[in-house]
Amino acid sequence: MTFPFFASLLTLNYLQLIWFLGNKKYTTLRQTIVLSSLLIFHILFIFLFNTPFIGLFLFLFIVFQPIFIVRHLNSWLLMALFLYLQSSLIITSWLFTYDLPVYLSRIGKISPELLQQLVPFLLSTQQLLLFVLILFVRWLDQKLQLFDSIAHVQKNYKMTVLFLTFLLIFLYFLRQFAVYSISYSSFLYLTVILLGLNSVFHFTVYLYSRYYQEQLRKLVLSQQYNNDLDKITLADEFRHDYRSILVSLVGYIEEYRMEEASAFILSVTDYSKNLLDEDSYDQLKRLMIPPIQGLLLQFIESCEKNGIHLRISIPQKIYDADISISLIDSIRSLSTLLDFIIKQQNTESKKQIYLTFEKKPHSIFIELSNLPKQQYSEIKQPDYLITDKKNLKTFGIAAVPMMLKNYRKASFAFYFNHKKCLIILTLPLKYASLVSEP
């Protein structure tokens, strides 16, 4: 087997990884096509030309891949996660299918003739093993929600990630140099070091993701606990004032002072509004997606800071497995819309926001408005539906329909009239099912 053949097999490994593991999750479809083109040109130049520029396209691939991931996800941690996953899967698949048999041949455990006969089978097995490992990583990621947990981490750890990335690339190229210099013992040592570095990195990221999810759950429970204490205090005060409230109300009615009685009832209602309103934090417990849950926690805090009355309704539990679109795209879409509605309400005298997540048999229905549901008819008219890209860009939400158009059966509607707005998102369920119970 010649060097061009082995180099082309390694390029096929990269093609498998960017399409079956990275496409639409770590990179967009367009970015994946660009990376694939570089790899294909690399293969063509290997077999057609014997020039020093053979490795140019592979070098461009190595440079552009992390840039594309950071540009798409805006997360340095996820970029490092993918590069380390890519490295560990390639090294592992080659180690058990080709590197170890070659090592056994060098120490005399396998004859060179037998190894030569086994090479076609070993190389085919390497490609198959890599594909199986990719499927395993996808299953494991879905089970542990590793990607989802890291996707919403606020800190980027840029310098740490850059150091770890350069260390990975340096050790990887040092390992390849050991092959060319025919120093097989150095090659094996560097392989063990790389696998150890990958294992430590993956385990650290896993622990960090678990820690992040636990901190998020604690924050939700803590906020709900504080709200419950406030409600208990308010209920105790209301219980002590109950007799005097009734006496005052009866006095107004007996004297036929109906306007004063009505005003008194409204004042009592305003006083106990926090007790009567459903707790937003309690609603968040039904949204079983930590990154989106964290985004809504920030939204609630922003509303409280800006004095905006917020009403969140999530009647059914919604899980990560229900979301059919990319988690990154769903977070970006929601973040853009939530920022817009807060800026919109900051200019209003009556500050109120209504947010609804509802799971239906075939879709997840999201409504965001500054009007209560019974007033939707005032604005939900064809004349108020804004679809023009230029107008949407003026409002700062043009990116949302652009992201959603990449997904079948996902829809976006934006109604606006005299600062009254209604936004409706319809996201198809990953698996159409019966609506779950609250």
Automatic annotation (TrEMBL):
Secretion signal, residue range per the UniProt entry: none
Molecular function terms, GO-annotated: identical protein binding
Keyword terms: Membrane, Transmembrane, Transmembrane helix
Transmembrane regions listed in the UniProt entry: 33-64, 76-98, 118-140, 161-182, 188-208
Protein name in the entry: Sensor histidine kinase NatK C-terminal domain-containing protein
